[in-house]
Amino acid sequence: IEAIKEFLNLFQSNLSKIPELRKLEIEFNFKDRVAKTYELLTQLTSTFNKTIQEIDNSLKGEFHIQLNEIKEDIENFKSATALARLEKLEERILDKNKNDDITQGKIYYLKGLCYEDLEIFAKSEFFIKAYKYNSSNFYYKEKACTQDLNNGDSVKALSLADEIIAKDDYNITGWLVKTVTSGLPLSKSILMP
Q: pTM for the whole thing?
């Protein structure tokens, strides 16, 4: 053991005298420190990203709770109040850049319900916008279908009606649009399935 200690002491003292060995020592220590720093930064980045995701999920959860409360307002015939709350909520969501297609679709759908209840039909494009943001939502598709028909776009309305009936053979919205666009007198079209 004494011989090893003596060798290490001699090696250390001569290390600074030989530039090539000194470079190797510095390079070895530098790479080791860089690797440790990189590992630490990777861990910090991962923790930071997880924290941001948790905050983001919390905000989205809060926004969806508020959207459900606004839907209750609409169901309780408080459409003017619901519309005002929707406008404020939409501003907050946009300010925080936490908007996604599903949330935006729900906002547009609820706005459409408010305007429909308030009989402000000039603002009826919200059902179509809701469907464009979330085309997988069946209710949005039904409302967009009838809205396209009301806007005079029977080609789009008929296309959506076909999609609706393909999923639900007895869907009243789909058959209503097909009946109205068929050009048949209503007495004959009642015989359609």
A: 0.65
CA distance 181 to 168: 19
Residue 76: closest CA among 113, 109, 104? 113
Of 63, 69, 91, 90, nearest in space to 81 by CA: 69
Q: For residue 88, how many C-alpha atoms fall within 13 Å in the half-sphere facing its CB? A: 8
φ and ψ of 6, to 5 deg: -65, -40
Q: Which helix (H) or strand (E) holds 128?
A: helix 125-133
Q: Which residues contact 85 (CB under 8 A, 6 or more apart)?
A: 66, 69, 70, 73
Give the angle 117-180-106 at the CA atoms, nearest 5°. Answer: 35
Q: What is the pLDDT along the chain (193 residues), one digit of tens a residue?
A: 777 777 777 767 766 676 666 666 666 666 666 677 777 777 767 776 676 666 566 667 778 888 889 999 998 889 999 999 999 998 888 877 666 888 889 999 999 999 988 888 776 789 999 999 999 999 999 999 999 998 889 999 999 999 999 999 999 999 999 999 887 665 544 444 4
